[in-house]
Design goal:
about 90 residues; alpha+beta; two-stranded antiparallel ribbon; about 10% strand
């Protein structure tokens, strides 16, 4: 049997082919730039506030600025959310 030599930084089993089949493609190729594949979405309902949404999702309403930061493309003021808006929950 013949030993294959690899460079010092390469594991003995070699480097897998990336993207040779759709199941092997890295998650970043299937996700738009800047999008986290684990991001949840929430549709604002009547009576919601960012504080309430943060409390429901994180267990701590004081984390509402994280939701605001993740949605600055659609929100200009954390106190002005509208029913039906779809918000990212990072």
């Amino acid at each position: 049997m013949e030993d294959k030599k690899t460079s010092p930084g390469t594991p003995a089993w070699g480097t897998p082919k990336v993207g040779s089949t759709p199941s092997e493609a890295p998650a970043t190729e299937a996700t738009p730039a800047g999008e986290n594949p684990y991001t949840q979405w929430y549709e604002v309902k009547k009576g919601d506030t960012l504080w309430k949404i943060a409390k429901d999702h994180y267990g701590d309403g004081s984390l509402y600025p994280e939701i605001f930061k993740a949605n600055q493309d659609v929100l200009t003021d954390p106190d002005k959310i509208k029913v039906g808006q779809k918000l990212r929950i990072p």
